# Entry
Amino acid sequence: MRRDREDTRRRILDAARRLFAELGYEQVTMRLIAAEADANIALINRYFGAKRELFAEVLAQQGRFPGVLDVDEEGLPRRLAEYVADRLTSGTGSPVVATISRSAASPEIHELIRDRVLSAILEPLEARLTGPDTRLRAGIATALIMGTGTLRQLFGTDVVRAQDRDALVARLTAVFEACLTVVDRPSSPT
Amino acid sequence: MRRDREDTRRRILDAARRLFAELGYEQVTMRLIAAEADANIALINRYFGAKRELFAEVLAQQGRFPGVLDVDEEGLPRRLAEYVADRLTSGTGSPVVATISRSAASPEIHELIRDRVLSAILEPLEARLTGPDTRLRAGIATALIMGTGTLRQLFGTDVVRAQDRDALVARLTAVFEACLTVVDRPSSPT
Amino acid sequence: MRRDREDTRRRILDAARRLFAELGYEQVTMRLIAAEADANIALINRYFGAKRELFAEVLAQQGRFPGVLDVDEEGLPRRLAEYVADRLTSGTGSPVVATISRSAASPEIHELIRDRVLSAILEPLEARLTGPDTRLRAGIATALIMGTGTLRQLFGTDVVRAQDRDALVARLTAVFEACLTVVDRPSSPT
Amino acid sequence: MRRDREDTRRRILDAARRLFAELGYEQVTMRLIAAEADANIALINRYFGAKRELFAEVLAQQGRFPGVLDVDEEGLPRRLAEYVADRLTSGTGSPVVATISRSAASPEIHELIRDRVLSAILEPLEARLTGPDTRLRAGIATALIMGTGTLRQLFGTDVVRAQDRDALVARLTAVFEACLTVVDRPSSPT
DNA sequence: GATGAATGAGGCTTCATTCAT
DNA sequence: AATGAATGAAGCCTCATTCAT
# Structure
């Protein structure tokens, strides 16, 4: 049975994306990817080079919060809150954050991860902010986003009850507002 | 070559704590610990059993936010903000969060990590809260704390400028307040 | 270097069979098998899994006394006697008994061995017996068969002189008859 | 607490004898012996040298079938039958055969075992026989004795029912008679 | 002389990668 | 160009033994 080269490439990439997001860089073996993609192991090396480069390709192809950041500054907290709440309560979610938060510990891909956090999350976020300390405010929001990724990984979707989703969104919106909006006065009087 | 069991045990434990916090569970090899502790590999297994058990011992010995949570509910946001700000700006920091956030992806120790997050961070936090949705509020704060750990790992202390520390503390205090305090009205007005 | 999966598999299996029979489970290392099979160690694990599973495969492939038990009850003692005599006097012999008797002490494979003794020796033997106490009679014969395996291992082929083979067969036949045949009167008169 | 040197020696020897008989040479670790004897590991090496030499000492101290062989040729089959039956049905038994049959696979002590089989079982047995082929006859009986050791190790005391003991002794007596007694005519008539 | 900490060797297993076919 | 067999490195762990104290 002849195989279409492009199709195989795509199947490998799909499998890699899925597995990296679910298990993290370290836990994913080349054999696992090959099995999941129903492709030959050597093809992965042939098409993408080493494991690291395949990971780089996956990162590069993953959009930067597809749709999430396409709002103005005012709507951003609510939008982020919904995104994070979905990831905490449902089984699915954009794999970008999952991939990053599950793979951040591997030094081999440290730079890739760092650059990706910058280009996919922190910088787009910062670009939508006005006022002072944009980097700092975007940084805190980024930390919260990635932290929920870790939390999700540890506790699955059970950390909050399903019926709490509205409360969760409301609370997260307030938190992201605290992260992102300009404050008139310092919040720690005295 | 010293021959002091307690001293060697401590050296191993110190090395393990340092390395696990810096590199994460997966990246730390028994050989690396042995070299760092200037001890024989076999001794690690003799004193602590398997690698997983050594990690458990490290986790168990690491206090639960030493001193950080010893405040009432009102002072908690400020306290957490200072703690997190210190970790983001200084070279040192409590290794608890670092260890946890760098090791969360390893399935072998998944339960240990989860239990530790609960017993060291989430539950103590929740215990200090009053009002509704305590678990949810403590959960979001926990996510933020762990997310800053990941951020710190990725960017070192360079994510915020040193002179921004006051602004950072102020901002983080507001964010933790948004996480933890009881709100009177829904936070998403039209 | 050949690149034939089936051939390599067979070489590994042959080497394993030979070595397990000669040295017993414990004394055979994966490295030794690899060297004997002229194959890479990792291939053994890839093809057969763990050492225990390779041993199970060897056991499974070894027939159950090929041809030895294909006689009726009357001819059985003589047949067994010849089989055992051959093993005690010649350099070769069915590796089943050798493998079992040399590996019985390893707790890791205790169940495998036990099941194999049952399915390859004791139960086929018992199935050919009529009259009372078939399990007991087959059990004693099994003990004798395995004991000669141990004896062979300890003394090689020197335990009996070559010219004694006829006497050995005669004597063993009598012994197996005493094991297996139905007796009319109790064998211990006052 | 001062320890009596002789007492410690004896405790070590006792523990070693017990463990070697129960588990076989390979499975017994120096630490296990030390723990069982409640003694220091280094003392074993100090008192007995290497593990092999400790095993030699155990073998040397173990009598040669204490009491079993103290009968004339006529009573020997019955005596051996009772001995073997006891080992197959009860929890206890002379550790000589157990030690030997469980340790025969270790090449390190191969010679020790072989010499011990000769001096403790085969030669005493042979010395009590008259007529031709004494070595051969004693050899077959030895094989049966050791084979029951292996059987016992594999199946515990469940290979025969408890109420079958009389039948077992009767049968074994007949078998040992077939091994040991002088036959007038070859047992395999045409 | 007694203690137990320290050691080096070696065991099994798994991985990413390369190399014949 | 595609396949998958082969490889070497490395990981964790355990053992008998030696060496300071």
